[in-house]
Design goal:
The protein is 35% helix and 22% strand. The protein is an alpha/beta fold. It has three domains: 44-343, Polyphosphate kinase middle domain (polyphosphate kinase like, 2-Layer Sandwich), CATH 3.30.1840; 359-522, Endonuclease, Chain A; 534-723, Endonuclease, Chain A, CATH 3.30.870. The strands form four sheets. Strands 15, 19, 20, 21, 22, 24, 25, 26, 27 and 28 form a ten-stranded mixed sheet that branches. Strands 1, 11, 12, 13, 14, 16, 17, 18 and 23 form a nine-stranded mixed sheet that branches. Strands 3-5-4-8-9-10 form a six-stranded mixed sheet, sandwiched between helices.
Length: 724
């Protein structure tokens, strides 16, 4: 929804102002103190989310190639889970640090339960591939071959491909007393070969490795010039079939693909690092040597090789997964490039019908009204235009912007470089610790510095996760500020895949405090004060608790009270306890939590009035939006970059902003929350036992998808604009 509502450029009526209570509000004590059983385990809750992603791969309502993408995302999610979460728990066990989770489980018990859940998840994931998706793809003329299934002509083509494209690139590595076990990179493909020498029959069970460089495609089109079916073979099948070429004179007894997942968390002592950028570059080079936390290997490998790999990787068997199928299903994402629109979602192009559609008019429009965009239904282009127009506008004196993640060829980086070359004061807050984007951000930081942009890295010990861009422009005798405040990253690619909000404003009270955020990040001020913005680590946590407690007090006094909140994760114990207290006092609480949720809903006497749902669909639900009814005053409607997690409240710089315009506020309530709380297609409801169930579907009522509704509404706006 592209929304824009007019207002006075000079004033904010009292009835429009957010009435966020001060952080000194007194807590309301719950009538029953929660026990450890009142919290779900964070890691197991995350695995439940990944199970919901797998459910999309199993759901025939999605087009076939979209189901394949969901299956690939399950693998990507599990990679990160092991690299960060499991790695952290293993470190706790090894260091004998007793750090129990919010539900009281120690690290060792969490690892035991994780193994059980992951084993089941991986088994079901491969069953989905083998039993459902592979046959369905074959029916559509998309066929996968193994080495044993190749027809004579296909075999000839594969051997020629191997000789020309694969053999010159691979290097065999023997494993014996004179050849130490090599350092295997994180998540790299390897093939282990079992051999013997016919000339020395007394010596058998020789072992060699074939590390496969990332440059080689993992999914190979079989003879792509041939007509008919689209046929594919995994690179591992080609290597296993032709492995004997690397070992002339030896017999190959078996070949099995495997890969190792390593601890990928960065450990930086910022206070001891004189050059933070250089330190991050050094640590990124060290990541490939991180401790092994998972081994994935094809089923059927002999016990001797299996034991050798586990010993060299220092892995016990509970961290090993024998797979009946491809090692890394993430590689199936390349199937998205197949030209089969009949097997994909109907094409949707985000619409650009907002008042900001004309870049030349952006500042003129924002002087008179706020604009709210709902991505990806609304085009991300106005966000790009906001910065690009500022870069070339001779009346703009300064631009300040945060970067957590951005795209490969970022138009924002290009715009800031252009602005600096045009003589403007340009400041970029680049977060070096954006997980798995560290290398990209180092590259952007260097490019920006070389162009004359002031590049800083934020508060010591805190990730800069807020999404803010500020423009200072001379208009007549005064300087006016314009701000973009968002829930998602400055990344046009994810702007087409993630649901997020973009809020543009020239309201003095908000832009002044946005400037205060940048000053806090670039300067040395202590405890800056914010009245309108909720900013972590300064006041966000306390203000969210105060808002919840205010609703609790209203309900306890018999007045209407309600909380609605949409986020990616709910983990913070203080917030959960405050929501329990609100429920006990009579507050109706509706939560839309896409991923991890440690709160237990629907428990009599504790959380009777709390409902939790998760939506996993075509687009990744990423917006963070909050509603507090505030009986007797204007509801507080907020959006921003922060989930309700300790890291967001304490260890990150986050910005949550009020949406002040009445009609924009009405859309958030009736449009966003109203539609998503009606979803019966892809929403799942969390029960008190940790299970996610489909939303009950009333007989005779059509299934409703909020995402489909927003797509249809965007198309209607585009059609109306074309006719105007």
């Amino acid at each position: 929804m592209a929304s824009s509502r007019s207002r006075s450029a000079q004033s904010t009526p009292a009835e429009e102002r957010a009435t966020i209570p001060p952080s000194r509000a007194q807590p309301v004590i719950p009538s029953a103190q929660p026990t450890k059983a009142a919290y779900f385990n964070r890691e197991l809750s995350w695995l439940a989310f990944n199970r919901r992603v797998l459910e999309q791969a199993l759901d025939p309502r999605h087009p076939l190639l979209e189901r394949v993408k969901f299956l690939a995302i399950v693998s990507s999610n599990l990679d990160e889970f092991f690299e960060i979460r499991v790695a952290g728990l293993i470190q706790q066990v090894d260091s004998e640090v007793a750090e129990a989770s919010v539900d009281g489980l120690g690290a060792r018990e969490q690892l035991r339960r994780i193994h059980s859940v992951v084993a089941s998840l991986v088994e079901d994931q491969h069953a989905c591939w083998q039993e459902q998706l592979l046959p369905a793809l074959a029916q559509e003329g998309i066929v996968f071959r193994t080495g044993l299934e190749l027809a004579p002509a296909e075999l000839t083509w594969v051997r020629a491909y191997f000789e020309e494209q694969v053999f010159p690139v691979l290097t065999p590595l023997a494993l014996d007393q004179s050849h130490p076990f090599p350092q295997l990179g994180n998540k790299t493909l390897n093939v282990v070969i079992s051999l013997d020498d016919p000339a020395t029959p007394e010596i058998d069970h020789l072992v060699a490795l074939l590390p496969v460089p990332r440059i080689l495609p993992r999914l190979v089109p079989l003879d792509p010039t041939a007509a008919g079916q689209q046929r594919f073979i995994f690179l591992t099948e080609i290597i296993k079939l032709c492995a004997g070429a690397f070992f002339p004179g030896f017999r190959v007894h078996g070949a099995h693909a495997f890969r190792v997942t390593r601890n990928s968390d960065l450990y930086i002592d910022e206070e001891e690092s004189e050059n933070l950028l250089k330190k991050f570059e050094d640590e990124l080079r060290n990541l490939r040597r991180g401790a092994a936390v998972r081994l994935e290997i094809e089923d059927g490998v002999n016990d001797g090789i299996f034991t050798t790999l586990c010993e060299h990787l220092s892995l016990s068997h509970e961290y090993v997964f024998r797979l009946n199928g491809p090692i890394n299903l993430l590689r199936l994402l390349s199937l998205a490039d197949i030209d089969r629109p009949d097997l994909k979602y109907p094409a949707f192009v985000p619409v650009n019908t907002s008042p900001l559609a004309d870049p030349a008019q952006i500042f003129e429009v924002l002087r008179t009204q706020d604009v709210l965009l709902h991505h990806p239904y609304d085009s991300f282009q106005p966000v790009v235009d906001f910065v690009a127009q500022a870069a070339r506008d001779p009346q703009v004196f300064a631009i300040k912007q945060t970067f957590y993640r951005t795209s490969g060829d970022s138009p924002f980086v290009r715009a800031l470089i252009e602005a600096a070359r045009n003589g403007k004061q340009v400041t970029a807050l680049v977060e070096l610790r954006a997980r798995f984007d560290e290398a990209n951000n180092i590259q952007w930081a260097r490019q920006l510095e070389e162009a004359g942009v002031h590049v800083v890295y934020g508060l010591l010990g805190h990730k800069t996760h807020c999404k803010c861009a500020l423009v200072v422009r001379r208009e007549g005798a005064r300087l006016r500020r314009y701000a973009h405040l968002g829930t998602g990253n400055y990344n046009p690619r994810t702007g087409r895949l993630y649901t997020d909000l973009s809020y543009f404003t020239a309201r003095d009270e908000l832009t002044a405090e946005a400037a205060g955020v940048f000053n806090a990040l670039t300067g040395l001020g202590r405890d800056p004060e914010f009245s309108h913005l909720l900013v972590a680590p300064f006041n966000l946590h306390a203000r969210i608790l105060a808002l919840i407690r205010r609703e609790t007090a209203h309900a306890a006094a018999g007045r209407p009270a309600r909380i609605m909140a949409k986020m990616n994760a709910l983990v913070d114990k203080d917030v959960i306890d405050a929501l329990y207290a609100a429920s006990q006092a009579g507050v109706q609480v509706d939560l839309i939590v896409r991923g991890v949720c440690c709160l237990v809903p629907g428990v009599r006497g504790l959380s009777d009035r709390i409902r939790v749902r998760s939506i996993v669909g075509r687009y990744l639900e990423h917006a963070r939006v909050f509603y507090f009814e505030n009986d007797g005053g204007e509801p507080d409607i907020l959006a921003g970059s922060a989930d309700w997690m300790p890291r967001n409240f304490i260890r990150r710089v986050e910005v949550v902003f009020p949406i002040a315009d009445p009609r924009l506020r009405r859309w958030v309530v009736d449009g966003m929350f109203g539609m998503e709380l009606q979803d019966t297609a892809f929403a799942r409801v969390l029960d008190a036992h940790g299970g996610y169930r489909p939303v009950p579907q009333p007989a005779g009522v059509p299934v409703f998808s909020a995402q489909d509704f927003f797509i249809a509404a965007a198309r209607e706006r585009a059609e109306a604009a074309a006719k105007a």
